[in-house]
Design brief:
Length: about 170
């Protein structure tokens, strides 16, 4: 199993809003070329997300199915990418003050990954997942820090009003 942890300087609700939008996975999941389809009821249990992974002409289509969903706390997916098999991806959002400790576990379920489990496979998965969590954290912080619309309009000056000479 490969485990990554990342402190994200945003609340669990803010991080969850990114996880609960299947069409945004391409923004932070490392290696994603594009989202092929996302069920409208994502991330409810049983919902599916179809993703194209890879670079250039070397691509593979992956299907993720939600197995466990506890909003703002936990999301577990089963990712299948033939001929490579399947893996369990568990994401836990732990409140840490006003922030989120994000714990990501990856574990092979079927296919060659089960026989090659351990070093070096887990090492490369940890590297990839670390990059992924860095992207997710940057997006969450950027959105957390974004000012509400219209707030950047300057306030009118304060002080006594004066009539223009006529």
């Amino acid at each position: 199993m490969a485990r990554n942890r990342r402190l994200i300087l945003s609340s669990p609700s803010e991080v969850w809003s990114l996880l609960s939008d299947g069409h945004r996975y391409g923004e932070w999941v490392t290696g994603t070329q594009r989202i092929l389809a996302a069920d409208a009821h994502w991330p409810e249990v049983g919902a599916r997300l179809e993703v194209r992974l890879g670079t250039g002409p070397l691509t593979i289509d992956d299907t993720c199915v939600v197995r466990i969903c506890e909003p703002r706390r936990r999301l577990e997916l089963e990712a299948k990418a033939d001929p490579f098999g399947a893996a369990r991806i568990a994401m836990n959002l732990i409140p840490w003050g006003e922030n989120t400790l994000f714990v990501l576990d990856w574990h092979p379920l079927l296919g060659p990954g089960t026989r090659m489990h351990g070093f070096p496979v887990d090492y490369f998965v940890k590297l990839r997942n670390g990059m992924m969590l860095t992207k997710l954290a940057r997006i969450a912080v950027r959105e957390h820090d974004a000012e509400p619309a219209g707030r950047d309009v300057p306030e009118p000056p304060q002080g006594p009003s004066r009539a223009l000479p006529g």
